[in-house]
Every structure is written in structure tokens, then in C-alpha cells.
Amino acid sequence: MQKPDAAQTMKRVLIAGSPGSGKSRAARTLGDLTGLPVIHLDSHYWQPGWQRPSKETWRATIQELIARPRWIMDGNYASTLDLRLQAADTLIYLDFTTLTCAARVAKRTFLGHGKSRDGELPEGCLERVDWPFFRFVLNYRDTHRDRDLQSIHAFSGRRYIFTRPRQLTRFFAQLKKSIST
């Protein structure tokens, strides 16, 4: 893992990982530390009432977002990972256990049920119990992780892979220290 003193050269940061790994929280923390604008992909993907955009519309949206000069972008969306990896200079991948991710999704779902996630989701997309999504979280490591890791290992920019939440916490602490010195 590279040292976090790369903050000065971070311009386009992609944060990926299983649902529930804390991508949005990590993006907000990194945005606070670096001053880079945060783009929560869920807020651009979902339309009111949890409607999905067409594949063409979604790719066009991603093209517009990655064309911006500076950003921190959180979200998976495998169908556009190639575009985002080509545009990013830094990748943070949260490779946390299924138990960690599932517990976080359950907590978020039950504590936020019927509420909106301001800035993370558009209006009309209230937190809800979504059993197919929860199954996706439970199966992510078996069905999607290897594909994501293959794409990530081909990434030519700075790459940070964290397998435990405390590693990410230490990274942010080191980053904060390097920025303030």
C-alpha cells in the first residue's frame, strides 16, 4: 500500500466495494479532508420510486460525471466500472467481510427505514427493506468480488485496498496528518 501523502495529487478518486462497506461514508470523509467534490453514484443512478435508467442513459451520465476535472466518486455499478477506472487517478477498494457489510446494510435499513439518505439518493427513494438487495450483499464476495478485483488489479493509478475498517480509519488519520503538515 502506498503512503497517503498522495493527497496533493488526488484529483479523481474512485471508491468501490461491496454494498455496506462504507463507500459513501469514506467518500464524505475523504472529501472533507481533501476538498474534492463528492459524487454519490446512487443519487445519479436511481430515479424517484427506485426506477432504473436505461443502460445508454446511465453510461451517458457516467461520461458527464467523469469529465469533471476533480471528484471523489463512490459506488460499484459494474457496467460502468471500466469508464470510471479509465478516468480515475486513485482507487480505494473496500474489501470488507460479508458479515461487516451485511450488518451495516441491516443497520442502515432498519434505522433509516422510510427515511431519505440526503445527498446519497434522489427524492422519492426512501430507505426500505429490499430482500433481493440484501441477498446481493450476502453473495457479493462469491459472485462479483473476483470480477471487480480483476478490473482493479489492471488499474494503473494509485490503488489502496482495505480489508478491515480500521485500516481505512488509519489511512484517513495518516492522510489528515500529511495534509496538515
TrEMBL record:
<keyword id="KW-0808">Transferase</keyword>
<dbReference type="GO" id="GO:0016301">
    <property type="term" value="F:kinase activity"/>
</dbReference>
<dbReference type="InterPro" id="IPR052922">
    <property type="entry name" value="Cytidylate_Kinase-2"/>
</dbReference>
<protein>
    <submittedName>
        <fullName>Adenylate kinase</fullName>
    </submittedName>
</protein>
<keyword id="KW-0418">Kinase</keyword>
<dbReference type="InterPro" id="IPR027417">
    <property type="entry name" value="P-loop_NTPase"/>
</dbReference>
